[in-house]
Design brief:
There is one protein chain. It is built from four helices and two strands; from the N terminus they run H-E-H-E-H-H. It has helices spanning 2-15, 38-47, 55-58, 80-105, and strands at 25-27, 52-54. The chain has a two-stranded parallel ribbon with strand order 1-2.
């Protein structure tokens, strides 16, 4: 539960910012023996109504390269390919959300 409390504190601090930035919670893939906390993060994002994007789920585990290629020497440091993967995933998510929002309401 320690990691959960840290994540919740971080999320609440973002939501309390006076300029109210848009927030998208990004869940990265981890290389063994590290694990992600996608399920517990889902509880937070649902409770605080923050969109969550999982790189692993977004790519349906069909990455054109091995997941070890997105990490440098440790699981917290992305390679250039890892940064590109994150950027493409977030851009596609935002385009998808904007497209569906604009079509469903007629007004952006």
């Amino acid at each position: 539960t320690g990691r959960y409390l840290i994540d919740e504190t971080f999320m609440r601090s973002l939501l309390d910012l006076s300029n109210m930035p848009g927030i998208v919670w990004l869940e990265l893939m981890a290389t063994p023996p590290y694990v992600t906390s996608e399920m517990t993060d889902s509880l937070l994002t649902e409770y605080y109504d923050v969109p969550q994007v999982s790189v692993k789920t977004a790519w349906h585990n069909n990455l054109p390269f091995d997941s070890s290629e997105i990490w440098a020497e440790n699981p917290l440091k992305l390679t250039a390919l890892g940064h590109k993967l994150v950027a493409v995933t977030l851009a596609n998510f935002m385009c998808f959300e904007l497209k569906h929002t604009c079509h469903s309401s007629g007004v952006a």
